[in-house]
Amino acid sequence: MARNLNTLDRRRFLRGSGVALTLPMFASLAQNVARGADAVENPKRLGCFYFPDGVPMPLPEDPAYQEWAWFPHGNGKEFTFSKCMEPLEAVKSDLTVLSGFSHPKSRSVHGHNNADQFLTAALTGGGDREYTNTISLDQVYAKHVGDKTRFASLVMSTDGGTGTARGTHTISFDEQGRPIPAEHRPKQIFDQLFVKTDVDSTRRLALTRSALDEMLDDAQRLRRTLSSDDQRGLDEYLDSVREAEIKVEKAKRWLGAPLPSVDGNQLNLELSTDEPREYLQTMFDLIYLAFRTDSTRVATYQIGRENGVGRSDHLARAVGFNTAHQLSHETKNPDGWKNFGIYCRFLNEEYGRFLAKLRSTPEPGGTGNLLDNTLLLFGSASSAFHLSRNYPLILAGGQHMGFKHGQYINHAGMNFQGGPWMGEGEPWQDEAKGEDVPLSNLYATMLQRLGVPTDSFADNTGLVEAV
User: InterPro entries, from UniProt (predicted)?
Assistant: First the structure.
């Protein structure tokens, strides 16, 4: 099946169950605003994107540094992109590149273990250390804004599911630190957002609610007979039941609301990573459509799993390479930095295309464009080979939330670790050359600008005033 995401009939995005979907900006409403009536507040959206395996980090004395280093050259408003980053030139005024940020609890951990903590800052660790995680940035915001839309959040990845501890396929974690399964099939994502489910939904929801009520009653009677350790285990289970209860109640509120109508013939929903460039474009397009129709205001997409495991490693075939992970191991070879840079350039091309599409779309029923009202984080938890410091990060959009872009916040300066891996000790095992800023400082800033009444997240020590 094919769909065209640019031919949306916004007149059919109706109001249901007391919650507005997306409405057009009627001229009469605009006149009322001009006469002094209260303006409709723009929605505030959050999107977070993760790519694995780090980025090209040739040292300044390497001839490849000028052309293929991932981080820009310069600082502040005076910076230039390398060939690796050139595809973002057209949206340069709408983004900020950051260096010298990372999560303190993970700086001495192998880089392939760290996708799990990218949005949580938790001590997920490595080796034999017990695995625990905490709530992710996106889910903190989803708790704040999720009741305004049909879906509290959209969780996607190229590999799907949850993966394994320190080998996650999802960057979203709930309040108990449990991984939220990600969807990787474009048709299932599209159907979830825009295709009506069976007509027996009301009866099934009623049965589900009845079953949950009985389960909670039984659990409370059981609790009185358990040891304290068993009670803690039961409480964790009951937390899951209560989450299900909340979802059932929300589903009931949206049951009669009409779905947005999408018409067209240009979106291929039967894609897999066998068509890597079109697959990546389609996944970005689905997020664009979910935001444009106000189906959700929170989305995450893990573009690839760490360590070259899974179908996501085949995305490199879009630019003529067999697998993506291997490129990060071959930078010591002739054209090694160039090859790795070409793959990262491909990711930047498709991300830049997504940003440009948001920027070219007027905010439905509001002011500015979709990008002005959408805050986007794009990055990885490694920079140089397996190095869990100096994360490569791009913050984009959100200018209506007060973000200042068109800059490079270069905390790392020229004092960074890099160079090719020569087969001996790895950079993550070396002593750090400088002290990174806690990435949670940025996350607390993002939450505050998104309207969450907080000045803290995880282990932050302050806010980032420069953005």
Answer: DUF1552, TAT_signal
How far apart CA 2 and CA 190 sit, in angstroms, is 11
Indicate the domain borders of the chain: 40-195+260-449, 196-258
DSSP state of 52: -
Q: Which residues of 272-281 are buried (b: 16+ CB within 10 A; e: fewer)?
A: ebeebebbbb
Q: In 3D, which of 453, 450, 382 has the Cα closest to residue 103? A: 382
Tell me how far apart the alpha carbons of residues 298 and 155 are, in angstroms, rounded to a whole number: 9
Residue 157 backbone dihedrals phi, psi, to 5 degrees: -155, 165
* Beta bridge pairs of residue 47: 299, 376
- Say what the pTM is: 0.83
Of the listed ranges 151-165, 190-204, 331-345, 412-426, the least confidently predicted one is 190-204
- Residue for token digits 């800052």? 121
Alpha carbon distance 257, 252 (integer Å): 10
- Relative to beta strand 163-164, strand 95-99 is unpaired
Give the Cα separation of 107 and 255 in Å (integer). Answer: 46
Kindly report the three-state secondary structure assignment for every residue of 40-51: CCCCCEEEEEEC
Per DSSP (E only), the strands in 197-265 are none
Measured CA to CA, the distance from residue 287 to residue 127 in angstroms comes to 35
Q: What angle do the packed helices 276-292 and 186-194 form, to 10 degrees?
A: 10
* Cα gap 193→22, rounded to integer Å: 14
Distances (CA, A) of 106 to 53, 120, 249, 390, 434: 15, 11, 38, 11, 15
Q: Which of 50, 51, 68 is nearest to 59 (CA)?
A: 68
Give the residue among 102, 96, 98 at the shortest CA–CA distance from 439: 102
Work out the number of other CB atoms within 10 angstroms of the CB of residue 81.
Answer: 20
φ, ψ at 178 (rounded to 5°): -85, 140
446, 375 Cβ separation under 8 angstroms: yes
Supply 60's token pair: 């300044």
The torsion of the CA quartet 231, 234, 240, 243, rounded to 10 degrees, works out to -50
Tens digit of pLDDT for each residue in 76-113?
999 999 999 999 999 999 999 999 999 999 998 888 99
- Tokens representing 210 are 């009845």
**Class at the top of the CATH hierarchy for domain 40-195+260-449:** alpha beta
Tell me the H-state helices in 47-117: 65-68
32-36, 182-186, 326-330, 354-358: the lowest-pLDDT one: 32-36
**Cβ contact 173:135 at 8 Å:** yes
Cα end-to-end distance, the chain, whole Å:
42
Instruction: Tell me the three state secondary structure of residue 449.
Output: helix
